[in-house]
Amino acid sequence: MNTREKGAAYEQLAINYLQDRGVAVLEHNYRNRRGEIDIIGKDGDYTVFIEVKYRKDSAAGQPAEAVTYGKQRKICKVADYYRMMHQMGDFTPVRYDVVAICGAEITWYQNAFEHIYS
Known about the structure:
Number of domains: 1
Oligomer: single chain
CATH topology: Trna Endonuclease, Chain: A, domain 1
Distance between the termini: 37 Å
Order of helices and strands: HEEEHEE
Helix content: 25-40%
CATH class: Alpha Beta
Strand content: 35-45%
CATH architecture: 3-Layer(aba) Sandwich
Strand order of the largest sheet: 1-2-3-4-5
Shape: globular
Largest sheet: 5 strands, mixed
Structural class: alpha+beta
């Protein structure tokens, strides 16, 4: 299994996990000229932008630690564009989450980081 196939498999695992917890998936691998967001979903009133990170073990650190400030900033830029294209106002509640998969353990970090304005 190559890296892209592995990433797709773990993203699908994250989608199943989120759907089991009531998140409606709106987009998967949403891309625009600013970058990519793994999953965009609806959780209650919130539109949620979700980054999925996988590690086979914690030897190289926890998966959520790989969502650096730079990655967060890029996710926010992509989210801003998505919100503009879908005519979502400034008062639409949004959240930035991380689904971290380490081995067989899945951890969902809700509101993992705040919006970064640039």
